[in-house]
Write a structure and sequence with these properties.
The protein has 13 helices and 2 strands. By secondary structure, it is mainly α.
Amino acid sequence: RRVHGASTWFSVVSSLNLNLEITSPECAASPGVDMWLVKWLLMMLVPVFAAAALAAGGACFYGLRSVSCAPRLQGLTAGSLVDALLRSLFQIVVLLFLPIVAASLSFFGCHKDVTGRWVMEASPARTCFNRGYWSLFPVAALFAVVYGLCAPLALARWLLARRRALHPVEFELKLGFLVGRFRDECFLSEVGAMALKIALVLCNTVFATADARAAGMVLALLASLLHLAAVQPYRRASHNALAIGVMASCTAVLLGGTFRDRPLRLTVVVGGLIVNSLLILVGNAYDLWALPREELAAAVVAADSFDKARTALAGDAPSALFNDDSTSLRGSGGQRSGAVMSQVLDDIELVALSDHASTGSRR
């Protein structure tokens, strides 16, 4: 049921998402062009465009290695650049996952209008289940399977493989943009978030009436809310509290929209939107204030711990272990001792770097 103030707020917020409607590409199109199909295909190819843009930018950075005015790029290797580009592409796909999945499944959202004709929810001018619809069905099914099924499964498999192959500290450093916010045992939480988005889109696509869609979304959000409250996957307690508050307010907005009593519906929907907006604004403002201070404190503690450990090890071991030119330790015993001592120091330094990097990756 429509709540005018809430509808206006949703319209404002939708402009911050990946929404091709606000660009109005049909104004520059020739007469007779199927603009819905054009916009749908553009949305489906967003990851391809993102990959092309990243590849072009990476090629430019790689070409600037030999330029004297860019000394910081001279140590850039092809392997590190490709790794950074792949991480960037993963992050773009994760951020744009909801609108892309919603667009891919919008092709299957059909309902019967007052005249008895089956029309597409996203484009009422298009008729479902006719010859034109079935001609596009294989392409739409391919995109739906790729984005709605293969993408989260591929991410889960990749994270599991990296988890098994890498040292925990190296895993944290390399994949902090995906797992840095979560506790070690909850490193698949991003895949769970993608699954929730798919469930919400399916509820909006499969069910025909607005009340049924809202009920399905409420059930999906309630299940996710209970899981979030029980597991609390985030490292920071404030992030767990913020996520629970935001999800609870979203659930209240959807549930309130189904109420038949207008004053109660208005109170719950508008109140939920206010609470949701305040939680997001205050939570982000708090992070902007607190995270730099925590990063500085973590860096100081890590550096102090590393210095103390090096001093303690240096005091207990012969100085020759820290001097490559020394010949006082000879033979395999001294070499093994030096290798062990070097490994200990390397591990301490890696942990210090991990502590600092994991704090920064949770922004």
